Amino acid sequence: MEKVSSTRDYNQYSLSIRFSSDGFSLSVYDELNKMLSIKKVSALLYSLSEEEIIRMLMHEPELQVNCKNIRLICELDTYAFVPASIFKSDEAELFLFYHDKKEKPEKVLYNELVAWDMVNVFSIPPALHAALIHMYPDLVLEHHLSNFFTDKINPNNNNCLQIWVRPKMMDVVVMTDAKPVLINSFTYRSTEDFVYFTLHVFEQLSLSAEKYDVRLHGMHKLNDLQMNVQKYVKTVVYC
Questions:
Q1: In the CATH hierarchy, which fold is given to the domain comprising 156-238?
Q2: pLDDT in tens, 46-68
Q3: Which pTM does this prediction carry?
């Protein structure tokens, strides 16, 4: 199959392609990094073959243009953050599956987060990996939490919970004295679940609801979550 070709020149724009188990989204940004448009495509992406994924992507007109920058971001629930000082690339799979048995074929990748002195090791379905390498051989695949750290979390942030909100998952990063002390994900089905897991983190780490802010991030409507968490935590903001 041929790689994506360009039919127009949009070099002043940037494109972010975010993949998840239920499809992918295409976000176009201007030169000031302001989002101009977003398009979502539904599909059981992680169960498709390489050929099916390539065919689906090549049908999208947004992928037929030249952009200044393209980022590939994958939402994946199998990950492990490892201190850079002990990480070895040939042992990436051992770090990832240290606690859990590898149950199916997975391609193991990693992102180095230099500013944080750690490495995020994660796994991706082989068919999706093969399709993206075919279409974008020179681009780095980013795990969504690597992207979260790079784009949303300031290394100078003190004493806060940074939460990336997905439709049924919440990724929690606890910052104490500008260092991440917890990185974990929880499945929630309701606002009550979301509040419970947020307060559970406060309780387990003995955090003060007066001194720790909760900062919510994501593409979803978060007003209801913000209002309910705010009943128990002094400061809750949508970033």
A1: Nucleotidyltransferase; domain 5 (3.30.420)
A2: 999 999 999 999 988 878 777 78
A3: 0.89
